[in-house]
């Protein structure tokens, strides 16, 4: 049997592990921060009709510029954004990859604040960009001073700010984002994958775009929008940034089926986002209940909660899995992460975790 080590693989990929969240079929899957509510049936029917219409034309390549989709995404984001400021790809992972391909690469660096989304370092690796992990403050917070100090020290070509941060859930203040955007020499990407779950009134980095041509705000339809399986992520930035990304994308990277499906979902954005308040409520319930049980939930502006106070995370993860509840071990000491699901799923998680509570009586 040939093993990976026998292959003439790039030296910098040797011995590395791929992104590896377990994919298991379980009754309660709360491990990858999806929206666990299925798509409303009325929306599903419209999407099917649009896909059916697109199938007839699959003999031709799709609209390489996905013009209609960019218009719809600009309309969804608001903030006076126009089509030429929007880019999209197969998930925001691919959007981030395009950014690193265009602005990173050999001899360049990208800085993030660890612990943060595990794909950042892998995308850096794949594009030959040097990954710099700068530290956070206590409780995984990130103050303007701490962030700016790291940027002055390392002078990176790119900065990746995860707002709110995965896997910690930590909200990021607009003051920190502004301070980073003003201090950095390079491109500053604010990954707002979970922004829709932030407390109402939380400003988006989209507000900071005017007059800042090196600032990029990325979003996804995978989380609040309940569309992870369709693979659609997007960004808003200066039109020149979008032009740069055209240099690195593969021609026709967004299939006609993806474009049709995304347009269908965006046409019903109110219905697609209808469960966001409910999910935020379940997140608050998880934080309150975990606190009561004696765990240490961290502040979250997302659809998941990281909590400390777990004596043996591996054992608890396995025990919950045996009860059909899949959560996430993310390698932080004494901590586990759980996605806020439906009320029933959340109840299943809370009942299962109660058996491991520090305050167990
Ligand atoms: N950014 C963050 C912070 C994420 O947590 C994720 C998904 N886990 C993504 C980006 C990528 O999501 P997608 O490719 O599905 O848009």
UniProtKB/TrEMBL annotation:
Xref: HAMAP family: HisC_aminotrans_2 (MF_01023)
Subunit-level organization: Homodimer.
Residues of the Aminotransferase class I/classII large domain: 28-353
Enzyme Commission number(s): 2.6.1.9
Keyword annotations of the record: Amino-acid biosynthesis, Aminotransferase, Histidine biosynthesis, Pyridoxal phosphate, Transferase
Family: Belongs to the class-II pyridoxal-phosphate-dependent aminotransferase family. Histidinol-phosphate aminotransferase subfamily.
Catalytic activity: L-histidinol phosphate + 2-oxoglutarate = 3-(imidazol-4-yl)-2-oxopropyl phosphate + L-glutamate
N6-(pyridoxal phosphate)lysine found at: 223
Signal sequence coordinates: none
Protein name, entry field: Histidinol-phosphate aminotransferase
Entry keyword Transferase: yes
Pathway: Amino-acid biosynthesis; L-histidine biosynthesis; L-histidine from 5-phospho-alpha-D-ribose 1-diphosphate: step 7/9
Record organism: Agromyces larvae
Cofactors that this protein relies on: pyridoxal 5'-phosphate
Pfam families listed in its UniProt record: Aminotran_1_2
GO molecular function annotations of the record: histidinol-phosphate transaminase activity
Name of the gene: hisC
Keyword presence, Nucleotide-binding: no
